[in-house]
Amino acid sequence: MKKTSTLLLSILITVASFSQVAPDKYHVRFTDKNNSPYSIDNPQAFLSQRAIDRRENQNIPIVENDLPVNPDYLDSIASTGVTILNVSKWMNSVTVYTTDQNALDVIDAFAFVQSTGKNASFKYLTNKEESSKPFFENESYGDFSEDGGQNNDKGIQGVYDYGTALNQIQMLNGDSLHDLGYDGAGMIIAVLDAGFLNVNSLSVFDSLWINGQILGSRDFVEPQSPNIFGSHYHGCMVLSTMGANLPGEMVGTAPQADYWLIRTEDAATEYLIEELNWVSGAELADSLGADVINSSLGYTTFDDPGQNHTYADMDGNTTPITIGADIAASKGILVTNSAGNSGNSSWHYIGAPADGDSVFSIGSVNGSGVYTYFSSTGPTYDGRVKPNVVAKGQGTTIVNPWDGSIYTGNGTSFSSPVTAGMVACLWQANPGKTNIEIMEAIQQSASQANNPDSLLGYGIPNYMVAKRLLTPVIHFVSLNVTIMLEGAFNGTDMDTYLNNQLPLNQPYNSPPFNYPGSESVVAIPSGVVDWVLVELRDAPSPDLAIPAKTLERKAAFLKNDGSVVDMDGTSNLQFSLPISDSLYVVILHRNHLGIISNTGLTENGGIYPYDFTSGAGQAFGANAQKDLGGGVFGMISGDANADGSIDDLDKSGSWSLETGFSGYLPSDLNMDGESNNVDKNDYWQINKGNISQVPE
After folding, report:
1. CA–CA dist 254, 689 (Å, integer)
2. Buried b / exposed e across 562-577, counting CB within 10 Å, b at 16+?
3. Cα–Cα distance, 242 to 287 (Å, whole number)
4. Rounded CA gap, 679 and 670, in Å?
5. Using CA atoms, how far apart are residues 76 and 116, in angstroms rounded to an integer?
6. Where are the beta strands (DSSP E) in 289-405?
7. Alpha carbon distances (Å) from 78 to 107, 220, 224, 545
8. Quick one: residue 49, left, alpha or beta (phi over 0 = left, psi -120 to 50 = alpha)?
9. What is the pLDDT of residues 405-434, one digit of tens each?
């Protein structure tokens, strides 16, 4: 995710050359937010409590671009007689309508105005009534024959009777998430689109209205004369893939979510102003506390060729809408966006804002999970994987906006909201996660997670797998570990010379171990050789089991037969752990080199056993243990300062200072209660140069 300062700089660099963003519509940029009545110390004045909570939950600070545009600047602009259309705090700008050049001259003279571009050289189409919409023109709608019959498998699947929409949620294993009670309740999805024809009257949306799940609407295309439900049809179809709840006919992927309906796309024309509308719409979604934005929109070419984007612009940093989408993501919103419908054209790449590095770009497959020819492809110009994931976009079940019947649509416009609804459900199940963590879990759950490509990205997600990745199953681990210490080994088992000298409190609370545990006993149990420190680490492989992967640590006793036991001297160590990958056990000792298991622990009858002594390969790494004879392998003695390396410091810093003394000493390498030449000559000298193989 880009830092805000970088994004704002990109805005200034990349947008500075244009201002007339549609016929008689201008983009006015301001120089600063000085002398504003708003303050980041009082965010309640410009953000809802839910928006503030979203930031706090994800550790996102309130920053300057959260502040509204200075109202004095807006008053001055309005005083010239122009019509203010939309305001953007993230871009610190306003779009206005005027045919009065004198008004533009006055505005351009204001000290707080950076640019209006009154001398813009673009030639705009002023009489065009209906434009070609590159994003919409490759979409099609019809009956269920388009998807090879995949949608004809009607039936009840768990909690919901999805009707003909079963296939599109079932391929994502989203119905299983619904069965667990995660159907979007309590989540807010903002839908940015071209209009929501008849959403206020179609029966497929009745439950949304009855239950108050339509929270509101806003029109950024015609702010002076809003026409949300009487304008374009596209948003109605998009909304149906998420919010429809007509049992037996169609149920969407988030039937219990709340929705804001926001019109930013002018379906009649194609000008750059629509990208600015989108940014204003995203700002509204942010301030209202939306969790997810679905945007089934994309921009590449315009009615004025001078505004056209190039493939080089698809670098995640250039277009206004992509910059705005990444800012939205930086506020903790998860932005899902259609990859585009240009896969079969000369421009086959994704459009803006699907190129955003923090935008969740969604491609299309059919009901059998096969790439659809129209789905726009990656990579981005700078080589990043796009789309991120895919969902059903060919033969997707949608509502007919004119008569309310259920039919199908083809386009990434529908795979994106199918995904947005599932994102809301997954996040509902994991409310403590960030938007980036949710996205990453979805990607890692997908069918091509290990080999993403430019057609399907990471592939088809499995939302139950994503849930498990985000909420690992708690495992009750009864640990049965066997080790030997070279210093105490007598050819059969280990001597217990130190038993009556062992401290009653665990000895690993100082550097380099710094273990704060409170393990202690009244008396040392019989047969105990020494204290050891046990760590359990969760990682895909032992080489990746670094300290940051440690789930829990415990001090324990080592018995003379090699068993590692709890404070009673007989019981296995017990743990309750959320394991995501594989569980590796680390054994640390005060003067022997630490070891880590070479394979993940596996359960056997409720016990997790691991025997380090049975072979050299039981410990990860080269020469990690020593052959003690008789087929027994053990931890290597000589690391008197416990720094993971047997070297001169062990002699000069420990043995030289303690030789001749008796007691519980780090330099007592053979663990007989005395520090003398035997420790130096038979252990330190012989083992010098060995190092611990435990990853650090």
Report:
1. 61
2. bbbbbbebeebbebeb
3. 22
4. 6
5. 14
6. 292-295, 334-338, 360-365, 389-392, 396-399
7. 10, 18, 14, 61
8. alpha
9. 999 999 999 999 999 999 999 999 999 999
**How much of the chain exceeds pLDDT 90, in percent?**
85
Confidence of residue 136 (pLDDT cuts 50, 70, 90): low
137 — pLDDT class (breaks 50, 70, 90): low
In this predicted structure, the answer to whether residue 159 has a pLDDT above a threshold of 90 is no
How far is it, in rounded angstroms, from Cα 416 to Cα 236? 14
What is the spatial order of strands in the sheet that 564-565 belongs to?
564-565, 550-559, 528-539, 582-588, 595-596
Does 156 have pLDDT greater than 70? Answer: no
Distances from the Cα of 512 to the Cα of 71, 544, 641, 679, angstroms: 58, 21, 8, 22
- pLDDT for position 16: 34
If you write DSSP's letter for every residue of 504-538 in order, what string do you get?
SB-S-SSTTT------B-SSPPTTEEEEEEEEEEE
Looking at per-residue pLDDT, the higher value among 150 and 602 belongs to: 602
Distance, CA of 493 to CA of 501 (rounded, Å):
19
Closest CA to 324 of 379, 284, 383: 284
Q: What is the CA radius of gyration of the chain?
A: 32
Give strand pairing partners of 573.
479
pLDDT tens profile 299-325: 998 888 888 899 999 999 999 999 999
Which stretches within 408-497 are classed as H helix? 412-429, 435-445, 463-470
Global pTM reads: 0.72
Distance in angstroms (rounded) separating the CA atoms of residues 508 and 363? 53
Q: What is the distance between the alpha carbons of residues 265 and 498, in angstroms, rounded to a whole number?
A: 79
Q: In sequence order, what E strands does 523-599 have?
A: 528-539, 550-559, 564-565, 573-578, 582-588, 595-596
Cis peptide before 134 (omega within 30 of 0): no
Rounded distance between C-alpha atoms, residue 514 and residue 489, angstroms: 27
Closest CA to 601 of 612, 609, 592: 609
Q: What is the Cα–Cα distance from 168 to 250, expressed in whole angstroms?
A: 11
Q: At what angle do helices 234-243 and 412-429 cross, to 10 degrees?
A: 30
Residue that the structure tokens 């374009």 belong to: 232
Spatial neighbors of 85 by CB under 8 A, at least 6 apart, are 25, 94, 95, 96, 97, 220, 223
